Amino acid sequence: MTDIWFYHLQRLPLESALPKLLELSLARDWTVVVQATSAARLDALDELLWSYSADSFLPHGSIKDGDPETQPIFLTLGPDNPNSADVRFFVENAELSPVLADPASAPTQRAILMFDGNDATAVQAAREQWRRLKSDGHTLSYWRQSEDGKWEKQA
Question: How would you label 44-72 residue by residue, b for 16+ Cβ within 10 Å and e otherwise?
Answer without folding.
Answer: ebbebbeebeeeeebebbbeeeeebeebb
